[in-house]
Amino acid sequence: MTNNNHAPEKGGFLSFSIGSLEQLKELAEKVASCLKGNEVILLQGDLASGKTTFTRFLVSALDPSAGEDVSSPTFSIMNVYETENFPVYHIDLYRVKQFDISDFVGNGLIIIEWANRDTVEDNLPYLFISIDTKGDKRVFNITGSEKLIRCLKGYFPQ
Ligand SMILES: Nc1ncnc2c1ncn2[C@@H]1O[C@H](COP(=O)(O)OP(=O)(O)OP(=O)(O)O)[C@@H](O)[C@H]1O
Ligand SMILES: [Mg+2]
User: Fold this and answer.
1) Which atom of ligand 1 approaches the CA of 24 most closely?
2) In the chain, where are the structural domains located?
3) Ligand 1 atom having least distance to the Cα of 92
4) Which residue's C-alpha comes closest to atom 29 of ligand 1?
5) Would you say 127 and 148 are in contact if contact means Cβ atoms under 8 Å apart?
6) How many angstroms does the Cα of residue 93 sit away from the middle of ligand 2?
7) What confidence score (pLDDT) does residue 11 get?
8) Is the Cβ atom of 51 under 6 angstroms away from ligand 1?
9) Is 2-153 assigned to CATH 3.40.50.300?
10) Nearest bound ligand to the CA of residue 45
11) What is the pTM of this model?
């Protein structure tokens, strides 16, 4: 996993070139360690770019047994996983486009596949992860709330 660049943006910006499942797991574990359980993670990326796989690694890092329950919510729209410290609401907007998350905000971690940057309000703690597939690599571009980005950057001293 390589940390490519540091473009200026409010809250900051991180970019990783992911070449294997092992590297994806490593990134998901670092993200997981920065979470308190009240965040929203927005995942944007083509079909099969790894949104659900990233979610599975992240939930596994929070709670290994819960990780085994992670599956694509494309048809269920939302799956809920109980982890050690907080629930995870895993939502997929591929079929529905609109989904009211207000009942879950602040009550657990919300992960949304097929989200846009404007799926959540600015004042929520959030990460926006946009995945670009480039050959056999997947580039994870991450922006988000200042504290979360600072936490993640702590793992990748420049
Ligand atoms: N970094 C990676 N390295 C190798 N294989 C990967 C990587 N990320 C995902 N994959 C593989 O790509 C396939 C699709 O992954 P996944 O279902 O997570 O994508 P998705 O973005 O959730 O797809 P969808 O758009 O259907 O929701 C899976 O077989 C997964 O194992
Ligand atoms: Mg998926």
Assistant:
1) 1
2) 2-153
3) 27
4) 48
5) yes
6) 10
7) 67
8) yes
9) yes
10) 1
11) 0.94
| Amino acid, single-letter form, for residue 37 | G
Tell me the two tokens of residue 138: 């997947």
Q: Which amino acid belongs to residue 140? A: F
DSSP string, 53-121: HHHHHHHHHH-HHHHTT----TTTSEEEEE-SSSEEEEEE-TTTS----TTTTTSSEEEEET--GGGS-
Q: Judge whether 43 and 29 are in contact, CB under 8 Å.
A: no
- H or E stretch covering 8: none
* C-alpha Rg value of the chain to the nearest Å: 14
Walking along the chain (158 residues) 10 residues at a time, the average pLDDT comes out as 51 91 98 98 96 98 97 96 98 91 96 90 91 95 95 88
Token pair, residue 8, equals: 């200026």
Q: Ligand 1: does its nearest atom lie under 6 Å from the Cβ of 7?
A: no
pLDDT of residue 1: 60
The preferred substitution site among 25, 26, 52 for testing ligand 1, maximizing ligand atoms within 8 Å of CB, is 52
Q: Rounded CA gap, 139 and 128, in Å? A: 13
Among left, alpha and beta (phi > 0; psi -120 to 50; other), residue 94 is alpha
